[in-house]
């Protein structure tokens, strides 16, 4: 039996936790036996308030240390807050041995990275956090198009529902692809879904602080299907092509 510790903190995204919990419980149900034992842990073993729900846990990080796999559900996009409020977890994560599997869903990859567990390794996170993640953790080999990554017992998922793709991969790794396929079928999801970059905007978000570039980006978002060249863009921005190239960063 594979013991999985699900880490809860006030920043945990409840839907991400539920998605992971449901996937492994469904795997047990479809297999007809308890292949995965799910444990909920918090930093101090106390219940955790997540929005409208106050969740009980089975223990603290000492219990998590005995698990085969520690899985951290998504923690939202406020990375500074997540890192600040989980400083005790970071110290504990940094001491985890190589044989213990560590997995992050969506934005919680920042916790594994801040603890040094992703240094020099392939990883992914939500596509919207890519630039911020690269700046904070330049030593991580970020593969932002991937729905999930696996590198030496360190696992990461892309954004939101990509967490389910990683859970299916973990089910396949520990119990066989046949079971992962059955879980995917029961949840009516594709087992192989391609990359996550197709969900990202084709163009930068239009909230640019340059008074010349901001309106131009908004126009591009609405008109990107038509034939557009540099001269047309310069005319729209009421400037020369040289000025446009200099200010379009």
Automatic annotation (TrEMBL):
It comes from Aquipseudomonas alcaligenes (Pseudomonas alcaligenes). Residues 53-172 form the DJ-1/PfpI domain. One of its GO terms (biological process) is regulation of DNA-templated transcription. The lineage of its organism: Bacteria, Pseudomonadati, Pseudomonadota, Gammaproteobacteria, Pseudomonadales. InterPro entries: Class_I_gatase-like, DJ-1/PfpI, INH-QAR. It comes from the Bacteria. This is Transcriptional regulator.
């Amino acid at each position: 039996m594979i013991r999985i510790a699900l880490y809860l903190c006030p920043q945990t995204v409840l839907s991400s936790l539920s998605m992971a919990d449901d996937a492994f419980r469904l795997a047990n149900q479809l297999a007809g036996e308890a292949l995965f034992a799910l444990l909920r842990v918090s930093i101090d073993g106390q219940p955790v308030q997540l929005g409208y729900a106050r969740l009980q846990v089975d223990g603290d990080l000492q219990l998590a240390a005995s698990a085969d796999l520690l899985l951290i559900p998504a923690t939202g996009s406020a990375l500074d807050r997540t890192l600040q409020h989980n400083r005790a977890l970071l110290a504990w994560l940094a001491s985890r041995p190589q044989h213990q599997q560590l997995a992050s869903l969506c934005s919680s990859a920042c916790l594994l990275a801040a603890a040094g567990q992703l240094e020099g390794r392939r990883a992914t996170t939500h596509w919207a956090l890519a630039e911020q993640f690269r700046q904070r953790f330049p030593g991580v080999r970020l593969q932002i198009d991937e729905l999930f990554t696996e590198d030496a017992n360190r696992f990461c998922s892309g954004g939101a529902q990509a967490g389910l793709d990683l859970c299916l991969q973990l089910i396949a790794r520990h119990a066989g692809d046949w079971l992962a396929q059955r879980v995917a079928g029961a949840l009516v999801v594709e087992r192989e879904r391609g990359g996550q970059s197709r969900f990202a905007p084709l163009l930068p978000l239009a909230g640019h602080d340059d008074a010349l570039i901001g309106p131009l980006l908004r126009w591009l978002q609405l008109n990107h299907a038509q034939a557009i060249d540099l001269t047309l863009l310069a005319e729209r921005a009421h400037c020369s092509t040289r000025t446009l190239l200099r200010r379009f960063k």
